[in-house]
Each structure stands twice: as C-alpha cells, then as structure tokens.
Amino acid sequence: MSEITLLNIKIPLTIPNILSLYRLLIFPVIALMIILKQEMAFAILLVISLNTDVWDGWIARRFNQKTQIGARLDSLADIGVYITALSGIIVFKMDEIGADAWLFYLFVVCYVIVIVSPLIKFGEIQSFHLYSIKIAGYFQGLFFIMLFFFGYKPIYFYFMVNISLIGFIESLVIQLLITHMRSDLKGIFWVLKDLRENHE
To answer: Where are the domains of the chain?
Structure first.
C-alpha cells in the first residue's frame, strides 16, 4: 500500500485518509475565502468538506480501512472544518442569528472545551468518534447548509445546539473516565462496559 510521510508520521494512502488529507489541505483555501469575504465560494467549499467527512468514515467502516492514524487524521481534519465553519458563520451570518448569538457562542465555547481538555489531560487530540458526536455532526452540517442556502431557522438551530451539547457532555464524561487516549469508543455505554470487564 502506498503511503506518505508528514511530520515523520507515515500515513497509508487509503481512500478515507486521502479524503481526510483533502480536508486538511483545503482548510487554508476555505480560510482565504473568509478573509476575502467570498461567501458563496466559502459555503460551497465547506459543504464539499462536510461531504468528505461523511464518506471517509463510511468507506473506512465498509471496507475495513480503519486505522489509529486514520482516526487521528480524521479528527484533525474535523477540527479544521469546525474552525472554518464557525469562523464563516461569525463573519457572514451573525446578523441573521441576531439575538440567538449567545447560544451560538455557548456552542463554540463547549466545542473548544471538548477539543482542548484531552490535549491537557492526554497531550493528544481526541479521536473518540462517538455515535452522539456523529449524529450531532449530521445535524450541524444540515444547519450550515440551511443557514447559507436557505436562511436562518431558529427552531432548528435550538434543536441542533441541544443535540450537540449532549454529545459534548458525553465526550467530557468519557475523558474523565479513561486513563489514556483511545480511539473509536462509540459511546459511554461501551466505555463503562469495557471498564467493568477490565476490573473483573
């Protein structure tokens, strides 16, 4: 299998890893669209990145191409997507969100906590890939598409934020429960089951 080396890390060139690498490489281009105030170009490129995030996970599971390095690469690419998506919303859409801006910023703060806390505790980016976070991610992606192509829908925004907060809380609880960084944990039920089995 072909591979490339980035920062002394060998990355197999599987289709899921190529899609994750695409999201990493397109990150500065999307950021440039924000700086240049090119809203439609930004939105289209971001939607493409969101789609690659859906497909890389499905392909990895369907064709048994899941790897530790792939999980971490995917998580790093996801952070890039979040940064550009949230930045784009702040630059282009805060006027539309209006009085609900406080809830958007609460979402941002919670997301930052979930990303930073494993760096503090484990010295690594978390790559749990929880079902709750995946489900929330689909609703977040749909919110982004609706916001940029159909306008702000407050009811859906409230729903999306609440679903996301559930995923963030589960991630934080798992970070408290485990003693070392692990990938693909699915959810707290599986973590607790694993902890019980290891103590028996």
So the answer is: 1-92, 98-200
